[in-house]
Amino acid sequence: xSEPRRTAVTGIGVVAPGGVNRKEFWTLLTDGRTATRRLSFxxxxxxxxxxxxxxxxxxxxxxLTARQIARNDRFVQFxxxxxxxxxxxxxxxxxxxxxxxxxxxxxxxxxxxxxxxSAVGATTRLENEYVVVSDSGRxxxxxxxxxxxxxxxxxxxxxxxTELACRFGTHGPASVVSTGCTSGIDAVGYGAQLIADxxxxxxxxxxxxxxxxxxxxxxFDAIRAxxxxxxxxxxxxxxxxxxxxxxxxxxxxxxxxxxELSSARARGAHIYCEVGGYASRSNAFHMTGLRPDxxxxxxxxxxxxxxxRVGADxxxxxxAHGSGxxxxxxxxxxxxxxxxxxxxxxxPVSSIKSMIGHxxxxxxxxxxxxxxxxxxxxxxxxxxxxxxxxxxxxxxxVPNIARDHTVDxxxxxxxxxxxxxxxIVLSAPNR
Amino acid sequence: xxxxxxxxxxxxAATAASAVTxxxxxxxxxxxxxxxxxxxxxxxxxxxxxxxxVEQYWASTLRGELRVAPISRFDPARYSARLAGEVAGFEPExxxxxxxxxxTDRWTWFGMAASRLALADAAYDPADHDPYATxxxxxxxxxxxxxxxxxxxxxxxRGRTAVSVYQSIAWFYAATTGQTSIRHGLKGPSxxxxxxxxxxxxxxxxxxxxxxxxxxxVLAGGAESGLTPYGLTCHLSSGRVSxxxxxxxxxxxxxxxxxxxxxxxxxxxxxxxxxxxxxxxxAPHVYGEIAGYAATHDAADHAxxxxxxxxLATAMRRALADAGLAPDDVDVVFADGAGSPDLDAQEAAAIxxxxxxxxVPVTAPQGLVGRLCAGGxxxxxxxxxxxIRDGVIPAVGNLDTPDPGYGLDLVQxxxxxxxxxxxxxxxxxxxxxxxxxxxxxxxx
Lengths: 431, 444
Hints:
The complex is a heterodimer of chains A (431) and B (444). In chain A, 32% of the residues lie in helices and 18% in strands. Chain A is an alpha/beta fold. Chain A has two domains: 7-266, Peroxisomal Thiolase, Chain A, domain 1 (3-Layer(aba) Sandwich), CATH 3.40.47.10; 275-427, Peroxisomal Thiolase, Chain A, domain 1. In chain A, a hairpin with a 3-residue loop joins strand 13 and strand 14 (420-427). In chain A, helix 3 (74-90) packs parallel to helix 6 (159-168), helix 7 (183-196) packs across helix 14 and helix 10 packs across helix 11. Chain A is globular. Chain B folds into two domains: 12-23 and 291-439, Peroxisomal Thiolase, Chain A, domain 1, CATH 3.40.47.10; 40-280, Thiolase/Chalcone synthase (Peroxisomal Thiolase, Chain A, domain 1), CATH 3.40.47.10. Chain B is α/β, with parallel strands linked by helices and 444 residues long. The model of chain B is unreliable at 1-32 (pLDDT under 50). In chain B, the strands form three sheets. In chain B, strands 1, 2, 5, 6, 7, 8, 9, 10, 11, 13, 15 and 16 form a twelve-stranded mixed β-sheet that branches. Chain B has 15 helices and 16 strands. Helices cover 36% and strands 18% of the residues of chain B. Classes of the chains: A alpha/beta (431), B alpha/beta (444). Chain B: GO terms for molecular function: 3-oxoacyl-[acyl-carrier-protein] synthase activity. Chain B: This is 3-oxoacyl-(Acyl-carrier-protein) synthase. Chain B: Pfam families: ketoacyl-synt, Ketoacyl-synt_C. Chain B: InterPro entries: Beta-ketoacyl_synthase, Ketoacyl_synth_C, Ketoacyl_synth_N, PKS_Beta-ketoAc_synthase_dom, Thiolase-like. Chain B: Belongs to the thiolase-like superfamily. Beta-ketoacyl-ACP synthases family.
């Protein structure tokens, strides 16, 4: 029987609050700076939570064409920008179909796929257009004459995969994974499955969300999931801190180039890390609630480690979901203890949501990017805004200052509305 | 067919068969070689414009009852399209537990109702099994439109305090999967895939990946409900919706008068199992196995179709290669049947390219109910399995005069014939092409 097909990460692109490319993103994280601020995209004064982690993003400067900008919601624009950076970083010749790129090699070339995650898709554009066609909600029977011609493109979030497939001429399997806040991890996990099973040789994988619109802010207000620390927005995202009061909504995208390991090696690609293992489980308990014991997340972690053939003692770094809600951080801490035992107390655990907020489905991909860069640089990003210990959160959360630390194996986890619990293991290329 | 494509297909299939990547294999798979397992479908649940439940739907489909009708859920007078395939007579209280009804959108009601029916049909009670042994993977389309439009209106007319506490969990694309996992206590590796109309097939492909990694049972398929004024407005922007006044003139796949599609609502859930697990528990029905699958993307344009159907043809060829079958083994093609002349011509050309001169029977019964996004392709697979079960191919829906230029054997009346292998196509807006092969399983 032939060797299992393994998956390498050979390119990374990022659009994040406080840094619109890979380098700025990593600098922000390792400086421990926060990119949360008072919401500026619209007047947030009616809302309970008025803080957000916004991207200062110029799509034209990021290389998007006027038409790409006009027809796409911001979440697709982010992904196009991040993918441009990731593809360039990988050195692969991926160009629009019919222009001689890798995708044009048809049956002779590698099969290139797209696996992108998003929790809420084009919500912002759908809301903006709704406001116009309904005249600010005055009419239930909205007027289609005021609709743009790109509205169906926004209605179904698979537009994200379509835009990347078209931009990079990829004819392999393409889809969007939409499992709420674990979408980013799951999209990369599914991408690695496509490679493992021989359904694709290269996959453009990652996630994107741009949820900072009134309806998104309102729906999290309604369940008091977001932080109301409106007088101190820079310090509002406080994972694992005793005074945390909810997550800070963010936006952004990370895109990874996944490649079958032996082919990547053969072409001399730079390999950031390997996707060693991935697993997802559901808590089958509640759409938003979490039991404090963390059983199902612990199971996902255990299976992901198992498939990566690593044990608890091999884990050098945990990138936590660390959303900064009361229940999440307790749940997760319990899951780490349950799955890693004593090792949970020894390994550094941090949440980059403290700096770039929680960009729903996108954040999982940004956290995987952070893990890949931690492996590359042997530096662990900190948990910013950590000041006061919560007795229920008693691990080493790398408070406030990045730490030089050899990282050969990193674990990243996510937990999402719908009860999804996902875990992914990334390991250094020569391990 | 180019030699190059054939080689790639064979390589892909060979690699798939030898892949050893079970995430849980070492833990729960007991060392069985799961990499090449062909999962079986042991339960079907249907909620469609032509019926609640499989038998009602199937009987109506075989009778050729046109269930596209003037929209009744709101007054469509101001819209250029006024017809749709609505699910009539659906009382959520009869199908969904009360506490879920208030938390969820109509789309989720359909998905949960279909899932309950599918589990009953399979005689599978998840409570009898390890909670991690069952997962749910649905294709999702446009999310919770009724809920979404209502809460947007509340926000923009009455302010943020008027927004429902359930908005955050009802509108998003994972709602049906999440609620179904909670309702039935399913802790396995659940998922949500979105590829517009191809989503139902892609959910079955993900279910297969999950089963090959050691989870014995997966609920898969999808549902859709987008018949709100805003949902319809979004459809209209595609420029592909039929503006016919009468249902008989509307969505007419492969007809010389094809003039676009009509949206519909509903979908199907399929219970997909590891064959060994199904046999071990004595599953009452085995409708067939998922023998092969492949997906491609046109990568041409976000809205305009590709110059030709070559990537759809590639998906069909790769799906057949994955199944280890030749085109001659296929007894019927359940087509995507987009209902627009350009897209129908493209699919016809792709079918001819794969099947050559052989006139494989082609059908598209969805002409009776409209296009149900991810729910539609799930329903097509259910329909193909019913065809296998009963040895009858349903007719193309709402077809009067096949376009002779297509050169296809379009099924115009139910055709009694043994069906062992069916190939199902589904395409999604933007360029998604998926093909799935289902095959009869001989009784053990």
